[in-house]
Amino acid sequence: MLEIIRDYGLMLLIGEYPHGKLGGLALTLIISIVSLAVTFPCAVLIALARTAQSRPLKAVASGFVHCVRAIPLLMLIFWAYFALPMVIGFPIDATYTLIIAIVIYQTAYLGEIIAAGIKGLPNGQTEAAKALGLSYIPTTFRVILPQAIFNVIPGIVNQLTTIIKESSLGSIIAVSELSYVMLQVNSNEVTKPLQIFGILAATYFILCFALSQATNWLERRIANRRTGRVIVEAVA
Amino acid sequence: MGYQLDFSKILQGEYLDLILQGIQTTMVLFVLSWFFGLLLAIVLTVVRAVEFRPTQLLVAAFVEYHRNVPVLIQLFVWYFGFAVVLPDAVNEYLNDIGAEIGYAIVALALNKAAYMSEDFRSGMRSIHPAQMEAARSIGLTYLGAMRWVILPQAWRLALPALLGQTLILFKGTSLAAGIGVAELSYQARYIEEQSFRIFEAYGIATAIYMLISFVIMWLTSVLSDRFRLRVK
Fold first, then answer.
1. How far apart are the C-alpha atoms of A80 and B220, rounded to whole Å?
2. In this complex, is the C-beta atom of A200 within 8 Å of any C-beta atom belonging to chain B?
3. Which residues form the ABC transmembrane type-1 domain (chain B) (predicted)?
4. Is residue B11 part of a domain?
5. How many CB pairs under 8 A join A and B?
6. A92: Cβ contacts below 8 Å, ≥ 6 apart
7. Are A172 and B177 in contact (CB < 8 Å)?
8. Do B40 and B109 form a contact (C-beta atoms < 8 A)?
9. Minimal CA–CA distance to A148: which of A50, A62, A69, A233?
10. Of the four listed, A155, A226, A232, B22, which is most buried by Cβ atoms within 10 Å?
11. Which of B64, B67, B76, B79 to probe by mutation at the A interface, max A CB count within 10 Å?
12. Count of CA atoms in the C-beta half-sphere (13 A) of A210
């Protein structure tokens, strides 16, 4: 076990970099963070459409969410990897296709989380903003979203854990992220699969377990802050 | 673009057979892992409910492992890792009867058991402890209180989450393609490689996944509504 970490530890962390492309854990983290960063604005738009007054807008958003939830992520990755280059007419790097597939998939899930945050706010917030003479845009972006997003921060961090786990599917389309690197190590060292995949599982575990503990901590903190606020308001 | 959609090439002969086999394998994976997963989830929930620290910690570790490691890696651990622990003769026998699908069912069932046991547990936890005390004080035994008071409410509370897990499991069966199980997405990939009909092959597979997912979603909403706990 220690020999594997000694021989391949660096590869597990950064892939073949600096002699080749960046890979391993570093690429997994980059893919996950970039995916979440691109997903976030898309998810906010979906959430706004889901909670909008206009019925057609609501129907389109809900159709999108239900369709995406009905398809396995692997199918989306196949579409992005094999069909998308044919549609746009030029090849794209597998890493980008993986990010595109994850962004489409996660937009549906993160959108629902943010929509739940918006629905969870009391109506008084919108009414008060209107009473102050604010129109839709400032009401949404300066009153509703800052509170709704703050309240669902634990959900967003939790989605980062999910994205990290989903990025392991990159190994199927040869994106040199963590799982792919370890599959390659496994084909070099044919005799130690249990140790190699044990190390791989442990790496994901440490990362995701730490993040889910952080989620729990954030959840408690935010709940305290919200209840704290209620008490202050009641006293005042 | 000179690409003409032509589904008739895929929907006949050898390719149609492959698609049908793929659907069958997907459904076998789905149904068996669901069944064994649910069974084990119930066992895990009971074990965790018993006040005995070591076994509780073991169940907690089992749950955390399955929640914090990607399902694909769990499949790798079983398929690549576990196989070397077994004697050669056993491996040969397993490969003859189709080791991939066996390992896939084991991995998916264990994964779902972890998630479903958490759903059961949160269903149990949302019932106020006073209900147990009240049930005991009117003369029910511990098991009687469980049977007549706690469980009838707990399973209803856990039902929507369990059905959500069912949909995730159905979609998750596609990951078995990663260890070479010839289920629907694997067959779609194979047909695409053989025929170069990218849009038709993935289009049909996607449509089948969507159709079955929509049935599961519809059942979820019907059942969740039918068995909603109406006392508050």
1. 29
2. yes
3. 23-220
4. no
5. 121
6. A84, A85
7. yes
8. yes
9. A50
10. B22
11. B76
12. 6
Q: Which of B81, B72, B160, B58 is nearest to B108 (CA)?
A: B72
Whether B12 is covered by a domain: the verdict is no
**CATH for B105:** 1.10.3720.10
What domain range includes position B135? 17-226
pLDDT for the residue A31: 97
Residues A181 and A185: their CA atoms lie apart, in Å, by 6
| Backbone φ, ψ for residue A93 (5° rounding) | -60, 140
Give the integer Cα–Cα distance in Å for B175 and B25. 13
Closest by CA to B213, choosing from B167, B175, B165, is B167
Residues 6+ away with beta carbon under 8 Å from B44 = B59, B62, B63, B113, B114, B117
For chain B, residues with pLDDT lower than 50 are none
**Domains, chain A, ordered by start:** 2-235 (1.10.3720.10)
**Residues contacting residue B177 through CB under 8 Å, at least 6 positions apart:** A74, A172, B183, B185, B186, B189
* Amino acid code (one letter) for B177: A
Q: What are the pLDDT tens digits along chain A (236 aa)? A: 788 888 888 888 998 888 888 999 999 999 999 999 999 999 999 999 999 999 999 999 999 999 999 999 999 999 999 999 988 989 999 999 999 999 999 999 999 999 999 999 999 999 999 999 999 999 999 999 999 999 999 999 999 999 999 999 999 999 999 999 999 999 998 888 999 999 999 999 999 999 999 999 999 998 888 776 555 555 54
**How far does the CA of residue B185 sit from the closest CA of chain A (Å)?**
7
Give the total number of structural domains in chain B: 1
How many whole angstroms separate alpha carbon B107 and alpha carbon B81?
12
Name the residue in chain A with its Cα closest to that of B173. Answer: A72
